[in-house]
Amino acid sequence: MHSLMENTKITQVMANQTAATSSKGSSVIDMEGYDGVVFVGSLSVGHAANNYIKGQQGTTSTTTNFADLLGTKIQSTASALQLWLDIYRPRERFVRAVVIRATSSVIYPMWAIQYNGSKMPIDNTTAGTIIGEVHVEPAEGTA
Asked: What pTM was estimated for this model as a whole?
């Protein structure tokens, strides 16, 4: 079988955040066994010049050693526009996304999609956040 979900892991890394002007870091993602990760999320006031997301990496899962990744600032051009940031082959094992809000904005849930995983099987069912299935060559009929 060669399904996208075969070597992809999806994790919710940030829950909905109320409107504020504070910065907020996502959960830390361990990249061991994966080539890359795509962070996907949005802001209610994304078009403000001082609201954006950026990538960071570190050698341990504690964020005190994390540093910004060059050129990863992603800024929206419209409110509630979905933003994505792909970090392919980071130089450090641990990564996260950070949302910068200088203009008050809601942060909508953010997801991390790790891809090209070498650890099998990958479980993408997490209670309360995501559930799904893969179907190979499904026949027509009642879903």
From this structure: 0.89
Where does 1-143 show beta strands of DSSP type E? 9-14, 17-20, 24-25, 29-30, 36-41, 51-58, 67-68, 83-88, 94-101, 105-107, 110-115
Cβ–Cβ < 8 Å for 102, 43: no
Residue spans per domain, the chain: 4-115
Whether the upstream peptide bond of residue 109 has omega within 30° of 0, thus cis, is no
- pLDDT of 106 over the 90 cut: yes
Q: Name the CATH superfamily, with its identifier, for domain 4-115.
A: Galactose-binding domain-like (2.60.120.260)
**C-alpha–C-alpha distance, residues 105 and 45, integer Å:** 5
Q: Where are the beta strands (DSSP E) in 35-103?
A: 36-41, 51-58, 67-68, 83-88, 94-101
Three-state DSSP state, 6: helix
